[in-house]
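Long-time lurker. I teach an intro course on protein structure, and each term I like to show students one example going from raw sequence to a predicted 3D structure in token notation. This year I'd like something fresh instead of my usual example. Would anyone be willing to generate the tokens for the chain below so I can use it in lecture? Attribution to the forum is fine with me.
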Amino acid sequence: MTKLIALRASPTLHLYQSILSVEEKRLSAVNSTLNHGKTELLHALGLTQVEPTDHAPKILHTFQRLDYMKAFVIETPNPAVAERARELLEPDYLVLPDLRFTLPMPEIFRRYARRPRGEPYWPESSGVALAHQQDILGQGVLVGVLDTGCDADHLELRNKVIDFRYIPLDPTSDAVRTCRAFDVDGHGTHVAGIIAGRHVGVAPAVDLMVASVIESETLHTSLERVVIALNWMLAKFQLEENLHKPTIINLSLGFLPEWIGQGQAATVSRGIQQILNTLVVDYNVLPIVAIGNDGPGRMRAPAYFPETLSVGAVDQHLQPAPFSGGGRSPLVPENEPDLVGYGVDILSSLERTIEGRSVYATASGTSMAAPYVTGIAALLASMDPTLQGQKLRQHLLDHAVSIDAPSDRVGAGLARFG
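-- Reply from a regular --
Happy to contribute to a lecture. Here you go:
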């Protein structure tokens, strides 16, 4: 079976629209749908249009329209049909293979049957306690998480209404499901707890959207599932009450450049950049991405793309974690990560027992550092809603706590509120 992801090559917003407000930009992007002529050409090729939410028998030759991501997803067992679809869409669309992404696996050091109490969960230098004392808890900020899912009934999260979507392995044959949030791995629950946990979270009052895209058995996902999840999140801007809200998307997934063949590297790079441009330029969303746990000198895409805020990990003494990635970006003459977050022995929600008791755990990884930074960004945007997108990114960089370590280990320093 061949799967292709086609991304619109030209930007949604034209130069004159750069003066638009955030709300006007988002409204323009939401109302700018895909090329209907291309849709008819795909129909004429014998491809059947399906929706990710359809419960339908398996159809061999299909395509999906993802209007908010400005993308088509094409699936066919016939290589000739796939090649003809590529010819029909190019050069208006960048056509990519269905890339594989993986989770940078963290280390879990200790589990707790109940929440440990006593010491503050976040060091004073984070500014989290200061924000909470001022009743700044992330109110009015949308935060999206792409991960293994989220246990909505964990003690840390059960008082929140979590907007949840499960993106299955094959979205064209199994319906994308909106249901009460679940997580069969625990990683996504740990990440969500760091961001928005009632007791341990950095920004417990954010509006949380969680897409389950990573399988617990393999910790892998695909570009198809990622773009479907992002399309679902961007569809939230159809609602007028969301048009003005600061929006952040947390990603703890990526791929190493060597996984991509040399013949596809340039196209893949342009395609990933177009996805990020859709988020950043069209919708003024800030993508915050874990740099990876592959150690110094190595880093994962899309963290090293300039449109993202890439995050490495330090311990509570601000020492770079040995596993934290970094180095010279292969795209621009800059070092990565952009900054760091606390990512060693981080306490958060994990799972529940069969009796329904909430289990906590400490874990280490850039997957823990990225949601810490996401929480800090949410606190800042909650305090000042004009801090959105790249403006919020720059504020985080400008106000980071300086760390005496090379920039390819810690970037601008520790993200903090203040």
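Some talking points for your students: Residues 24 and 243 are 8 Å apart (CA to CA). The longest helix spans residues 265-282.
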